[in-house]
Write a structure and sequence with these properties.
This protein is an alpha+beta fold. It has three helices and 15 strands. The strands form five sheets. Strands 1-6-5 form a three-stranded antiparallel β-sheet, covered by helices on one side. Strands 2-3-4 form a three-stranded antiparallel β-sheet, with helices on one face. A three-stranded antiparallel β-sheet has the order 7-12-11.
Length: 224
Amino acid sequence: MTTRFETLQRIVSIPDRVSVHVEGRTVKVKGPLGSLQEDLSHLPVSINVNDNNVRLETTWPRKREIGMLGTATAHVRNMLRGVTQGYRYELRTVYAHFPVTVKVDEKAKVLKIENFTGEKTPRYAKIVEGAKVEVKGEDISVEGIDLKSVSQTAANIKIALRSRRRIFESFSTEYTSPERDPPKREPSRQSERDGRIKTRVQTPRELEVQAGQGELAQATGRYE
């Protein structure tokens, strides 16, 4: 029998120079780098601020409620870290032949990628609100205090650079020989260009089958 707890709670400490205000299930965090707001009303948890700590609690939790409590706790921790330290993603453009040009369009809030694999049409990656993108040579940096905005912008850049081309390779099993009567080879057709015969190498299994058919014909009295 599994023991159930009446209440389950998680406590997150508030760093210095950071203020947290809770209205229902909406959390507002303000720190040295800026302010963030997150609506957690879709999660069955109660949120309170006591003694410089954020307390998140759920009642009679099952497996589903325990997971949602961990999700709410992670959101609060990411917000506290964002307003104090911030987040930074670093990417790099790598090419072998066609030099790629990357530019930031501040007005359209997109990252413009030109000459990707020699394409004439540029590609675009959306910059999510709250993220800042800088391009220095081949390095691309995405910064911000909101983890969701920064990570989604980095993901948009990677998605925009996916290759749309597919390379299909074909292999030929035929063997070309200049000999007209090669040993253990069956001629298939004659080349019109140089008069050589294109032959196919017989497998050991095919040779065994042919030998078996000859023995059977001799045993039954039929000769071909």
